[in-house]
Structure formats: structure tokens, C-alpha cells
């Protein structure tokens, strides 16, 4: 309890006595104000130097937060290494050979353990890192509610069930709804494909064998198709080659993604699929026109995502090392 301020203890006790635990697994914007006053600066400085070293890392960190929250909730489970007794998420298919950013989280954690030992959870570090990665890529800033605690388990099988770019929109939407999000959030959070890169295997069927047709996806812009076929020739050894998700402003978090989708230049099948539904397609059009609307809605959706299945109060633990349960 030493890492929780008196006010939080009071609110926690109040919740315990008067309200249901469901209402009360709460997060607070100023959760670490007194216990770790340099938190924001430590995260920010690390994200700035990580991006300076590798601009692609910003998108990787946002994806890491997404893959944490959609599996077991935002509890840092994705950060756990496999052990003899714990089969982690890092080797699940959607993560293996593609999930990145662990070194950045480790460095932030080690700086924080020096500044305020056993205080800040790995789940909160990941949430703040994702926010700063977006903001430092010229995207929106939003306040991050804090106080998540770290889980002591992970689930490889749940990680294998993460939304996939090969699934139809209805299936992806169903997975979002099962996490308490909605169809709008699919359109909004897909906007994360405005920066970063994807490996060829995630969109190759669109180039050579769309839906088993032996032909390319007729909805893909033809000059983009030609470029992509050069980056990802039709042979297995090109599977891990990289193509930018947004070839126009690759390292910038902006609304260009939605302009790309509207001009049949979304990279993934799931990007293009947003046009096949009236609700998501209207959102794509609106975000392509109004970047501020996209920024506002993205901040709302990502904060909502950051509340999925959190541990708070006395649940879970504060890991000392993000890769291992204490
Ligand atoms: C304390 O938290 C508030 C948000 O509730 C924030 O605006 C303020 O900057 C924080 N102060 C410090 C010293 O971190
Ligand atoms: C810089 O980025 C590369 C590529 O992601 C990574 O392998 C390396 O560890 C990073 N170096 C530092 C000092 O962060
Ligand atoms: C989509 O969901 C349906 C119903 O759950 C399932 O039968 C189908 O296999 C899924 N499609 C894909 C491509 O995952
Ligand atoms: C979607 O929009 C089209 C064209 O505006 C309309 O014909 C169709 O009925 C709409 N579908 C649904 C399910 O609302
Ligand atoms: C898109 O913007 C128009 C014009 O402001 C609005 O009427 C419509 O409801 C918006 N569509 C969605 C899905 O938000």
C-alpha cells in the first residue's frame, strides 16, 4: 500500500464499502504524482531517444500496447518471457517475429526502478509509452489515466486469437465488441496504420492470389500493386520484407491513412474492408477530411482500449522486471 497515496486509499475503501468492485476498478490521472513525480519525463525522454534511433519503433510501441490490452487485459502480460512454468504471448503467431519494443520498455523500467522503486507498473509504462510514441510522431496528446497493476499470467492461446488483417470486418468487429469496444473503434484504431511497417506475408495474398483466385485484389490501386510486387516478390523468402503501412507520410501520425484507404491504397485487406460497411466507410470519409476529428476520436478510443481488463487496487503486482513475475 505504500505506493498508493492516502486519497487513493480513501477512494478505494469507499468503493469497497459502498459500491460494486466493477464500478471501482478505477484509474487516476495523478496516480503517481507524489510517488513518482518524474514519471512523465522519464518516459518522454526514453521515447524521444528510441525514435531518434529507430523511427519505426513508435508504431511498434503502439502495437505492443494493443496486443497487451486485447489479451488478458492491459496487464503487461505481453511483456512476460516464456519460462518452464509460464507459456507467454511473445511466441503466439500474431507476435512471433513481429512484436517489437521490449528493449525500450526495459530501459524505461530500469530508469523508473532507480527513480521510484517498485512503484510504476509495466502495464502503465506501456500505456504511457504508446501515448508518447503517437505524440512524438506529430499525433494527438491525451492524458493517460494510471494505476494499472501487472498480471502474473499470460495466454498464448488468447494471443493467437488477436484480430488479424486476414479476417473479415465482421469478425474483427466481433472481437472488439467482446472486449467492450464497438465498431466505431475498429475504424478509429485502424488509423494506427498511419505509421509503421508491415511484413509482406500480412498482405501478400492481395498481390498474387486474392481469395484463392490466382489473381491480385482488384480493389488495390494498380500502381501501388506494382510497387508492392517488387518489394514482395511471389516467393517465400520475401515474407518478412517490409512495406510502409502509409507510403505517403510513413513516420507521421496523421490522417493520411484514411485518404489512402479512400483511394484504394490501404495496405492490408482489413484496411480496405473498412469501405465495405456503411458505418466504417462514413468514418473513413470523415477522418480523411477532418484530421482534428480523427485525433479527438483516436484519443477517446485508445483510452477506452487502455481500460480493457485492467487490474487495480490490490490485484496483481508491480513487477520489478517487466519480463518476469516477481
Ligand atoms: C499531477 O497530476 C495532474 C493531473 O491530475 C497533472 O496535471 C500535474 O501536472 C501532476 N503534477 C505532477 C507534479 O506530476
Ligand atoms: C536502435 O535500434 C535498433 C533497431 O531497432 C536496435 O536493434 C538497437 O538496440 C537500438 N539501439 C538503442 C541504443 O536503442
Ligand atoms: C469469421 O467468423 C465466423 C463465425 O465465427 C467463422 O466461422 C469464420 O471462420 C471467421 N472467418 C475468418 C476468416 O476468420
Ligand atoms: C448502405 O448505403 C447504401 C448506399 O447509400 C444503401 O443503399 C444501403 O441500404 C446501406 N446499407 C445499410 C445496411 O444501411
Ligand atoms: C460524418 O460527418 C457528417 C457531417 O458532419 C455527419 O453527418 C455524419 O454523421 C458523420 N458520420 C459518422 C459515421 O460519424
Automatic annotation (TrEMBL):
Keywords, sorted A to Z: Calcium, Disulfide bond, Glycoprotein, Heme, Hydrogen peroxide, Iron, Metal-binding, Oxidoreductase, Peroxidase, Secreted, Signal
Subcellular location: Secreted
Binding site for Ca(2+) 2: 194, 246, 249, 254
Record: residues binding heme b: 193
Positions of substrate binding: 163
Top-level taxon in the UniProt lineage: Eukaryota
GO MF assignments: heme binding; lactoperoxidase activity; metal ion binding; peroxidase activity
Function: Removal of H(2)O(2), oxidation of toxic reductants, biosynthesis and degradation of lignin, suberization, auxin catabolism, response to environmental stresses such as wounding, pathogen attack and oxidative stress. These functions might be dependent on each isozyme/isoform in each plant tissue.
Protein name: Peroxidase
Organism for this UniProt entry: Medicago truncatula
Taxonomic lineage: Eukaryota, Viridiplantae, Streptophyta, Embryophyta, Tracheophyta
Amino acid at each position: 500500500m505504500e505506493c498508493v497515496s492516502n486519497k487513493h486509499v480513501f477512494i478505494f475503501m469507499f468503493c469497497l464499502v459502498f459500491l460494486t468492485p466493477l464500478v471501482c476498478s478505477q484509474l487516476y490521472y495523478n496516480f503517481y504524482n507524489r510517488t513518482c513525480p518524474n514519471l512523465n519525463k522519464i518516459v518522454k525522454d526514453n521515447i524521444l531517444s528510441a525514435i531518434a534511433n529507430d523511427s519505426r519503433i513508435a508504431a511498434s510501441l503502439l502495437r505492443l500496447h494493443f496486443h497487451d490490452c486485447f489479451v488478458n487485459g492491459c496487464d503487461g502480460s505481453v511483456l512476460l518471457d516464456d519460462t518452464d512454468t509460464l507459456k507467454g504471448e511473445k511466441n503466439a503467431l500474431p507476435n512471433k517475429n513481429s512484436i517489437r519494443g521490449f528493449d525500450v520498455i526495459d530501459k524505461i523500467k530500469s530508469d523508473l526502478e532507480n527513480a521510484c522503486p517498485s512503484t510504476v507498473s509495466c502495464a502503465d509504462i506501456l500505456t504511457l509509452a504508446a501515448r508518447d510514441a503517437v505524440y512524438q510522431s506529430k499525433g494527438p496528446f491525451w492524458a493517460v489515466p494510471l494505476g494499472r497493476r501487472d498480471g502474473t499470467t499470460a495466454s498464448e492461446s488468447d494471443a493467437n486469437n488477436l484480430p488479424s488483417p486476414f479476417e473479415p470486418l465482421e469478425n474483427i468487429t466481433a472481437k472488439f465488441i467482446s472486449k467492450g469496444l464497438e465498431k466505431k473503434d475498429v475504424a478509429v484504431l485502424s488509423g494506427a496504420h498511419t505509421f509503421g511497417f508491415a511484413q509482406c506475408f500480412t498482405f501478400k495474398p492481395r498481390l498474387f492470389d486474392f481469395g484463392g483466385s490466382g489473381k491480385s485484389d482488384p480493389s488495390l490501386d494498380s500502381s501501388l500493386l506494382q510497387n508492392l510486387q517488387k518489394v514482395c516478390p511471389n516467393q517465400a523468402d520475401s515474407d518478412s520484407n517490409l512495406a510502409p503501412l502509409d507510403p505517403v507520410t510513413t513516420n507521421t501520425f496523421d490522417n493520411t491513412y484514411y485518404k489512402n484507404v479512400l483511394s484504394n491504397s490501404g495496405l492490408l485487406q482489413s484496411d480496405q474492408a473498412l469501405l465495405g460497411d456503411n458505418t466504417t466507410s462514413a468514418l473513413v470519409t470523415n477522418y480523411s477530411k477532418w484530421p482534428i476529428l480523427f485525433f479527438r476520436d483516436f484519443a477517446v478510443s485508445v483510452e477506452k482500449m487502455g481500460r480493457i481488463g485492467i487490474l487495480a487496487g490490490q490485484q496483481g503486482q508491480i513487477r520489478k522486471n517487466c519480463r518476469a513475475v516477481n
